[in-house]
Design brief:
3-stranded antiparallel sheet, DNA binding, HTH luxR-type domain-containing protein, 957 residues, WH-like_DNA-bd_sf
């Protein structure tokens, strides 16, 4: 059996050894040798597919893949015998186990009892893994017979007893866990993100699926891959191309029931009522749960009599706790709700409407009414629609944006064609965007557009459409849509037109389109400017004599932000600072989320990191409090970039990780690209080359599709900074040069200045300092603006790197003095490091030791492990011990580096080491470079000789 052989066993016994060997997108196996995981999830979540991908990702050794045979579920030890039979069968790839008592030790005909079963299983696994790690995948382990499940569970709780074996089991996550598997660490498969769902559809169709149809399928599947593919296969070729309308509903009762393996058929009438009423109660619940009390009262009303108030839900389907109930599986809930039929659903909602108050009660009442042409002309339905829309629009009514969206959409269904219906849909679309449901918003906006409303309604619809595209779509399209909205709204709603103008500028900014940004901002020049206080100019960029004066309204905030951005792009830095300062100072906790996000953006433009952190944190708190899921990703994006600018990379990485999850949940791929870029930048100082490459790949993929020049430039900068931290200045200079030098290839105008210090350092260390002079002078202008607190010190550091020896000393000292006021461990440590390196090369060893030691402490404090390794190497070259280790001393290495060194000493190649340690070859290469630098060796032969000498030398007490 080779290192990439995968054996699959299915019933009847068929062994396949033709598994593909390509490594999937997930580069690391989810379990290592000596570990076990129980993979769970709801029906259709892709447990089997996950095992396939895990098997391909496990390159350290062979993989045995077993699928349960339901027909043998009552035969004692049938599952275990099937697994043991795989090891008993000799083949060309794997020798058979040694015989025992004249018979094969793993003969499936041997009688088995619990102790002997455990011993046989562990013996087989130890034998199979004797030459290297082994992965065992058992799909649908819950279908094994109880005796086999028990043996498998005991192994899962103590996998190390079987040797170098990794164990992956799958079992449904929508039913109570089998007690045999208790104690095995779970690994629950979450629903696919919208981006992952779209990628799966593109993979299945070769990218030929109509974009609108794809988005409809993604929204309907709600992240369930089996449902997604079933929906895809249910459509005709014309529907797939978008030439024919899609069926409604897309997922009907028959399809949903088939996916969950048939809804439970042995339910009593009472259980049917319980399940339907519960499914109706949680239909639009934010957390998928509902209070027990109103459901119990609704049941009593629905089937009559006191006994009906008893709530005994089937435990395999519903979970009851803390006064609330929830379904174990969203897919099962949808199937139960769909198969009840319209009459049953309306009856359940009618019963719930009598128990609920406020907006939920009105909404249940509305769902109990038919939504058809006849209902739309009914006076009672119209009155209900009016009451529903009024309650949903009332900010005093406690409700999440998702619930408000459902109420407004239902009000539109109960309203006849006309302006009122369009207004309800427009308001519903706005709430859908706040709730992080962009696809739902776009479908509602399509209905508004198709209804041919008046010009203002069309303009507001385009404004919302542009806002959706700005977070998840080509930004050029977003800009054009927002400019259209501005033109439609200019005469009817000046405040909304101003919002569209600033949104178009945001889109051009994201694309790196300076002329487009100026054009969009100039669109606002024609608006009426507020009167300037006495003694100030009234033109664009003018501000109050008191820059801290509060702005009168949200419109004033947008106007000042537009002025500030325009002045900044026109290099009128004083005017820009005054306007942007007013935006920041006007923000306060409790403001609208959008106002706080504007303040955070303005503060970042000025380099006011304290103001940016405060505004973004307030926006994050407000978004969570108000249930505005769409604002979570952007708020965390501003926090991540703020901490990156402050040099707090660990905190930036934390914000970006959370922000990436929020962006995926809200369907915001553009926001996700920025979070990937932020994580790449944070990882670039951590020395995590694999993480840098992974996040850069994701950021660039989205950026190329949607024209995100800013995110793409940040990602490229992360790659260059990783090169620089890894001691490859020439590669870093080659990568950064086109980004920072004038010309068509220059990076985003708001990013290239931040990357200049890296380029100058890379060019100087690579011996190309002469090419960096012109950009340093441009950087000086940026430093004078004050938008980056680190820039003045960085500027002096850059000048020191390029200066003659008689001037460099003083420049380094001045740079360090400025770092004292600017703060930031990472940037100060970089200056200390470069100064120490410069001193060492001039044989000023004592001074060099002090600077390099300070740099090492600073790098370690902020988690910059790659730079810390360089500082240690410089200290060793200076004749100084870094952390007490001597050059050539293996104790200076990390445990992972020691493992790699011993493999090298044994003659293993990098690829063989990667397979043995379940890491990538790039990771092995990265660690070996660090090892060579730390030990002062130049070849694998020298390294092997050093290891041999170390092992022969006795340790001193």
């Amino acid at each position: 059996m080779t290192g990439q052989t995968t054996v699959r066993h299915t019933a009847p016994a068929v062994v396949r050894r033709d598994r593909p060997t390509a490594v999937p997108e997930r580069a690391e196996a989810p379990v290592a040798a000596g570990e076990a995981r129980l993979v769970t999830g709801e029906p259709g979540c892709g447990r089997s597919r996950f095992l396939d991908r895990a098997a391909r990702a496990f390159t350290a050794g062979p993989v045995v893949h077993v699928r349960a045979d339901p027909a043998a579920a009552t035969v004692p030890y049938a599952g275990l015998r099937a697994l043991l039979g795989l090891f008993a069968e000799p083949n060309a790839h794997r020798p058979a186990a040694p015989p025992r008592n004249g018979r094969h030790a793993l003969d499936p005909l041997d009688p088995l009892e619990a102790p002997s079963a455990d011993a046989a299983l562990r013996s087989a696994l130890r034998t199979a893994s004797a030459d290297g790690p082994l992965l065992v995948c058992v799909d649908d382990a819950h279908l094994w017979d109880p005796a086999s499940r028990a043996a498998l569970g005991r192994l899962g709780r103590d996998p190390r007893a079987a040797g170098a074996v990794g164990l992956l089991l799958t079992a449904p996550g929508h039913r109570p866990l089998d007690p045999e598997f208790a104690g095995i660490p779970p690994l629950r498969l979450d629903p696919l993100t919208a981006a992952a769902s779209a990628a799966l559809l593109d993979e299945e169709t070769g990218g030929s699926l109509d974009r609108g149809v794809r988005d409809d399928l993604v929204a309907e599947a709600e992240g369930n891959p089996a449902l997604l593919l079933a929906l895809l296969r249910s459509l005709t070729p014309a529907q797939l191309r978008g030439h024919a309308p899609l069926p409604r509903p897309l997922a009907d009762a028959e399809l949903l029931t088939a996916l969950v393996g048939g809804c439970p058929s042995a339910l009593t009438a009472g259980e049917e009522h319980v399940l339907l009423t519960a499914a109706a109660a949680v239909r639009e619940a934010e957390d998928g749960s509902a209070a027990v009390a109103p459901v119990r009262r609704a049941l009593a009303r629905l089937i009559g009599g006191a006994p009906a108030a008893r709530l005994d839900p089937p435990p395999d389907l519903l979970v009851l706790g803390d006064g609330r109930l929830r379904f174990r599986s969203a897919l099962v809930r949808r199937a139960l709700y769909a198969r009840a039929g319209e009459r049953g659903r309306r009856a359940a909602h009618r019963a719930l409407a009598a128990q609920e108050t406020g907006l939920p009660g009105l909404l249940h009442h509305a769902w109990a009414e038919p939504a058809d042409a006849a209902a739309a002309t009914d006076g009672a339905a119209a009155a209900l629609a009016t009451a529903l829309a009024a309650a949903a629009a009332d900010p005093a009514v406690p409700a999440s944006p998702r619930l408000r969206c459902a109420a407004l959409a239902r009000a539109a269904d109960l309203t006849g064609d006309g302006p009122d219906q369009a207004r309800h849909r427009l308001a519903a679309a706005q709430q859908a965007l706040l709730a992080g449901q962009p696809h739902r918003a776009l479908r509602l906006l399509d209905a508004v557009r198709n209804g041919a409303p008046d010009v203002e309604l069309r303009g507001r619809a385009e404004l919302l459409r542009g806002a959706a595209l700005l977070r998840d779509g080509p930004v050029d399209e977003a800009r054009a849509t927002l400019l259209l909205a501005k033109s439609l709204l200019a005469a009817h709603a000046p405040a909304a037109a101003l919002a569209a103008t600033l949104g178009a500028a945001d889109a051009a900014w994201a694309a790196g389109d300076v002329p487009g940004c100026l054009e969009a901002l100039a669109e606002g020049r024609g608006e009426k400017e507020p009167e300037a206080p006495s003694g100030t100019s009234a033109g664009p960029g003018a501000a109050s004599a008191d820059p801290a004066a509060s702005l009168a309204s949200g419109d004033d905030v947008l106007r000042e932000h537009r002025r500030g951005m325009l002045a900044l792009l026109e290099r009128r830095f004083g005017a820009a600072e005054r306007s942007l300062r007013r935006v920041v100072d006007a923000a306060a906790p409790g403001d609208r989320v959008e106002t706080l996000l504007r303040a955070a953006a303005a503060a970042l433009l000025m380099g006011d990191l304290v103001g940016a952190r405060g505004a973004a944190t307030a926006a994050l708190v407000a978004a969570r409090t108000q249930g505005e899921a769409a604002a979570l990703g952007p708020a965390l994006e501003y926090l991540a970039y703020t901490e990156l600018r402050a040099g707090r990379h660990g905190l930036a990485r934390t914000h970006a990780e959370e922000g990436l999850r929020a962006a995926h949940r809200a369907g915001q791929r553009n926001t996700a690209a920025h979070h990937h870029a932020a994580q790449a930048l944070a990882a670039s100082i951590d020395g995590d080359a694999d993480a840098v490459a992974r996040h850069v790949r994701h950021a660039q993929d989205i950026s190329l599709r949607h024209g995100l020049a800013q995110a793409a430039t940040l990602a490229e900068w992360a790659l260059a900074r990783a090169d620089l931290g890894d001691g490859r200045p020439a590669e870093a200079a080659d990568r950064l040069g086109p980004l920072v030098r004038p010309g068509p290839g220059r990076g985003h105008f708001a990013v290239w200045m931040l990357a200049v210090p890296c380029f100058v350092e890379a060019a100087a260390r690579a011996g190309r300092g002469g090419s960096a002079g012109p950009v340093v002078e441009e950087f000086a202008e940026w430093a004078r603006f004050g938008a980056d607190p680190q820039a003045p010190a960085q500027l002096l550091r850059c000048r020191a790197l390029l200066a003659p020896p008689d001037r460099a000393d003083g420049l380094y000292e001045s740079a360090l003095a400025l770092h004292d006021t600017a703060g930031g461990d990472f940037e100060r440590a970089r200056t200390e490091f470069l100064y120490g390196q410069w001193l060492r090369r001039r044989r000023r060893l004592r001074e060099a030791r002090d600077r390099l030691g300070a740099a090492l402490v600073g790098f370690e404090r902020c988690g910059a492990r790659a730079w810390a390794e360089q500082a240690r190497a410089e200290l060793r070259a200076n004749g100084t011990s870094a952390g007490g280790a001597r050059a050539g001393d293996l104790s200076a290495l990390t445990p992972q580096q020691l493992r790699i060194v011993r493999h090298v000493a044994g003659g293993a190649t990098n690829r063989e080491i990667a397979q043995a340690l379940t890491v990538s070859t790039r990771t092995v290469d990265y660690h070996l470079r660090k090892v060579f630098a730390a030990l002062g060796v130049r070849s694998r032969v020298e390294l092997a000789r050093l290891v041999e000498q170390t092992e022969k030398t006795p340790a001193h007490p």
